[in-house]
Design goal:
By secondary structure, this protein is an alpha/beta fold. It is 40% helix and 14% strand. The protein has 2 domains: 12-55 and 191-216; 65-181, Nucleotidyltransferase, domain 5, CATH 3.30.420.
C-alpha cells in the first residue's frame, strides 16, 4: 500500500491535467505554462510520481522465455582516452517474451560473467529459456539449469530457429530516446530516470499509464 498524499490546493481539473501531462512526458516548464502553474508546483508533483515509482517492489521471477542483454549509456568524459565503452554507464536488462515486461539495472562495473550471472540467478527462475547474444559471460547458463539459446550477431540477428534478442534491444532504443528527451540528464540520476523509463514502458498503453498514476496519487 502507498501512503496517501495530502490534499492539494489545485482544482481537480488541473490535477487531472497535470497527471496527463506527466504521462505524455511534458517537461515541467511546458506543463507549468500550459496550466498556469508555477514550475515549482509542477516539479513537486512530478517528483512525487517518481518517488512512487521508486517504491515499487521488484517483479516476480522471470519464467518461460526471456531475452537478456547488456548496453552502455552516456558520453565518454572529455579527454578520456580509450575506445568503445570507456567512461560510459553499463546497463543490464531482461525482457519476457510472453508478457513483454522488462527489468533493467545499472551496473557499477563492466558486465562480465561474475557480475551478470548472479543477477540472472536472482531474477530468472531455473528452467527458463534464455535468449542472448554471443557474449561469453553467458556461457555457464546451461550448467546452471537454464535452457540457453544464442544468436551470434557477427553473423546474423535472427536465426532460422527464432533465436534473437530484438525484444530487449527495442527497449534499449526506447531508453536512448527517453534519455535524450531529458537533454542534460546527468549520469548520477540515471537510476531514478531508468526506473521511470521501465515503468512507462511496462505500463503502456497511455490509458493504463494514466490510471496507474492517478492511483499512485490517490486521485479518483
Amino acid at each position: 500500500m502507498y501512503k496517501k498524499i495530502k490534499q492539494t490546493q489545485l482544482s481537480r481539473w488541473k490535477m487531472a491535467q497535470l497527471i496527463t501531462e506527466w504521462c505524455y512526458a511534458t517537461p515541467a516548464a511546458v506543463c507549468a505554462r500550459k496550466l498556469n502553474l508555477s514550475r515549482t508546483t509542477v516539479q513537486l508533483w512530478y517528483g512525487r510520481i517518481r518517488e512512487k515509482i521508486l517504491q515499487l517492489p521488484p517483479p516476480p521471477l522471470f519464467t518461460g522465455a526471456v531475452e537478456v542483454d547488456e548496453s552502455y549509456f552516456g558520453k565518454k568524459p572529455f579527454g578520456m582516452k580509450g575506445t568503445g565503452m570507456v567512461g560510459k554507464v553499463p546497463f543490464f536488462g531482461i525482457r519476457s517474451r510472453e508478457t513483454g515486461l522488462v527489468w533493467v539495472t545499472t551496473m557499477n562495473v563492466e558486465p562480465r560473467q561474475e557480475t551478470i550471472i548472479p543477477i540472472i540467478q536472482k531474477m530468472v527462475s531455473p528452467g527458463t529459456t534464455i535468449y542472448s547474444d554471443g557474449f561469453g559471460a553467458y556461457a555457464p547458463l546451461k550448467s546452471l539449469g537454464y535452457k540457453h539459446r544464442v544468436v551470434y550477431h557477427a553473423h546474423v540477428y535472427v536465426t532460422d530457429k527464432n533465436v534473437y534478442t530484438n525484444g530487449i534491444e527495442s527497449f534499449w532504443r526506447y531508453l536512448r530516446h527517453f534519455f535524450r528527451s531529458k537533454r542534460t540528464l546527468s549520469k548520477n540520476v540515471y537510476k531514478q530516470y531508468l526506473s521511470e523509463a521501465v515503468f512507462r514502458f511496462n505500463t503502456r498503453p497511455m490509458a493504463n499509464l494514466r490510471k496507474v498514476v492517478r492511483n499512485f496519487l490517490d486521485f479518483d
